[in-house]
């Protein structure tokens, strides 16, 4: 994965450069985003408003407007927070020198799905496409070309490129199409597990299969489809 500095290193460096006032502002901003995720989890997008959020954390609406100009901006930051978490976890997988190269794409798939289902409502919020008025938002790539969502996709594409160049994946793979297909499959399984309790758990010939085992099987099946 072609990221020169880890997320933790970047965060630590940023913290050292911040003034006390900037650190406090960042903490409050993070607190607001965490509260927004809780409200979204309990009440859905319809229940998330600046006034409802103010009640949740005992702030005045005007105080929240100092950090977020609108619900649209808040939702954008909520989406970004999920993908920032995802990027950090994927980076931990790809930057581990002891991890065999042939396992990286499997582990990336598993990491994506686990990150999604750990906070299901945050994941759903991350893919919400409604603006403050309830109208479809602009295409994400056009609205946020430097967004963490795009960086997460580019990290996946980078792993496909590296797999092909290393001879681990088939040379004839159309790389962008392959990355989008992988993302579609991971996204689909994550949503199924979020919306259908117990999805993936089954019994095969008297042998129980857990949700984690199903995720591992799915990741292995995808990787085998790419294998040279």
From TrEMBL:
Record carries keyword DNA-binding: yes
Ranges of Low complexity composition bias in the record: 1-19
Top-rank lineage group of the source organism: Bacteria
Organism listed in the record: Ponticaulis profundi
InterPro entries, sorted: Homeodomain-like_sf, HTH-type_TetR-like_transc_reg, HTH_TetR, Tet_transcr_reg_TetR-rel_C_sf
Protein's name in the database: TetR/AcrR family transcriptional regulator
DNA-binding region per UniProt: 49-68
Record region (Disordered): 1-22
Record key words, sorted: DNA-binding
UniProt domain HTH tetR-type: residue ranges: 26-86
